[in-house]
Amino acid sequence: MSVPLLELRDVDLYYGPVQALRRVCLHVDEGETVCLIGANGAGKSSLLMSIFGQPRASAGQILLRGEDITGRSAHHVAASGVAQSPEGRRVFPDMSVEENLLMGTITIGDRHADEDLRRMFELFPRLLERRNQRAMTLSGGEQQMLAIARALMSRPKLLLLDEPSLGLAPIVVKQIFQILRELAAGGMTLFLVEQNANHALKLSDRGYVLVNGEIRLSGTGAELLGNPEVRSAYLGGH
Ligand code: ATP
User: Fold this and answer.
1) Is residue 10 assigned to a domain?
2) Number of domains in the chain
3) 102-139 per-residue burial string, b: 16 or more CB within 10 A, e: under 16
4) Which CDD domains match (predicted)?
5) Among 12, 21, 35, 44, which is best to mutate for testing ligand 1, by the most ligand atoms less than 8 A from CB?
6) How does pLDDT run across 166-182, given as a tens digit for each residue?
7) Centroid of ligand 1 to alpha carbon of 140 (angstroms)
C-alpha cells in the first residue's frame, strides 16, 4: 500500500486546560479530495493549524508522505509542499491582486511566477479583470478566489482550505466549489474543513465528521451524505 500524503495519528491538542482535539486519526491520499465537517468550535481550524505546528500537537503524530512533521515550523511544512487558504481569507488588503499572488511564491522563489500567474488568471478570470486593484476592494467571493490562487502559487502537493464557503452568497459558494472541482480533476490533493456539509461532501471522495474534537464518523462523501446522523446534524434534516 502507498503511504498517505497526509496522516494524523492519535493527535491530541490542548489550549491550556482546554482539549481541542482527542486522539484524531485521519489520512489523505495523493489525488484525493477529503473534507472534515463539524459544527462551530468542533476543532476544525485547530486541526488545520496543528499541521503547521501552531499550536503544536500535544500528543500523536502528523506525517507528510511518511515523514514525521509534528511540531515542525510552518516554514518547513510549507516548503514540504503544503499550502493553506486560511479562514476569513486574509489577503493583504493594501496590495494589488497581482502582488498578493506573488506573495504566494515566497516559499519556492519566483522562477515560475509569470507562468503561474497566467495559469491563475485562466483558472480565475475575475482575478485577471481585477489584477491591479487593491485586494480590499474585492468582493468576499473574489477575496476567497484570491486566497486560493495565492496558495496555489506555491505549487503545493496538498492544498488545505479552511471554510472556503464562509460568509459567501450561495451563488458564489457554487462558483468556489466548481473551481475546487476543477482543481481536483486536475489532480490536486485537497483537504477542506467546512461547516457547509452539503457542498463539501458532494465534492469529496471521503469525509470525516468532527464532534467535540473527536472523529465521530468517516466514510465516502456519498455514504456520509446518506447517513441519518449527518443529515439531521449538518444537513438540516433534509
Ligand atoms: P469555527 O468553525 O468556529 O472556527 P472550529 O471547529 O474551527 O470552529 P476551533 O476554532 O478549532 O473550532 O476551536 C476548537 C475548540 O478550541 C473550541 O472549544 C475553542 O473555544 C477552543 N479554542 C480555539 N482556539 C483557542 C485559543 N487560542 N485558546 C483557547 N481555546 C481555543
Assistant:
1) yes
2) 1
3) bebbebbeeeebeebbeebbebbeebeebeeebbeebe
4) ABC_TM1139_LivF_branched
5) 44
6) 888 899 899 999 999 99
7) 23
